Amino acid sequence: MVCLAFFGTWTPFNPVTVRSIISMFDRENKGGVNFNEFAGVWKYITDWQNIFRTYDRDNSGFIDKNELKQALTGFGYRLSDQFYSTLIEKFDRQRKGQVAFDDFIQCCIVLQRLTDVFRRYDTDQDGWIQVSYEHGEDPRTVAGQTVVSERRGSVVTVAINRPESRNAVNQETARCLLEELQAFDSDKDLNVAVLCGKGGNFCAGYDLKELANHTATLKLEQDVTKGPGPMGPSRLQLSKPLIAAVSGFAVAGGLELALLADLRVVEESAIMGVFCRRFGVPLIDGGTVRLPHLIGLSRALDLILTGRPIGAQEALAYGLANRVVPDGQALHAALELAEKISSFPQQCLRADRSSAMYSCYDAPSFTEAMQYEIDHGVPVIQSEAITGATKFTSGEGRGGKFS
Questions:
Q1: Where in this chain does the record put each EF-hand domain (predicted)?
Q2: Does residue 231 lie within any of the structural domains?
């Protein structure tokens, strides 16, 4: 699916686009489509392609807001100018005031889902609905996205969006998380990611309701042994900083996701812990590997063996939390921290981060760890350090100004 052709080329679609297309036709929730479903997929793509080509008059592969409005009007939509501005803001990944073809597909899919939901609630067919807070908190929830990302310059926020289950992760959510963080790691325009949860909780671990399903469990066993891990990205070794904004519960697999992050900003009332202990579910997403490195073996075993909850202040004393902030402020504080980190010279920052990670997890000896530091530090001297020293002598970099 990733290599579907369009515009006569074999340009890959964004993984988020592929996921959205599959979700339209994957009636059995298997993560794929059969031949008949693929025929339906192809028809939709052809229709989208034809309408996109019609309004991409300069053949640039992009359409602007006015062209998007004309294209969607061709599909029968009558939307406000502000709504089109919102669509451009949401789907303009390159921040050019335009959308590419695969972003246009995402836009069409979201609109179709919103339309389906609207029709379901418009029982008297008068073109108006009254939506409660629970139904309308976030249009992207209605659209079925269990993971929502938002770019803010060189920082991206990745949010688990299953508030009804305290952001417990199922297979679909795990796949989405993995794709989002892999996309972040490979995007040269992004420096830092912030991982959080919608609705007041970070993540309550893996969805035990899905684990109780025999068919889903067979798929889970494959993910455990061959895949990146049940929680999605938790076995990754990212090349750029990740910050966890922790509110509510960050327990079991949710704790393991928090451990994936370089730094954890934790709200005062947040609860962390190995709550899966009581259900006989092991830590298989890096918990037994990362936790002892972060807080020491003795403290790690205290949490792992007892499954007890740990509050924000104790987590701060342990080194499990890096910052403790008032309730409701974790995401804001994490974004401020991310923007500060993003303002530093990035090659130097990533080289030092990589050396620290290698020394902690991979280095077989002190000597090899030191050599790794030298090998990765010397190139930075030529690329950034000399420039930085020149800036310093001219007064830049003092008082917190680095770029």
A1: 43-78
A2: yes
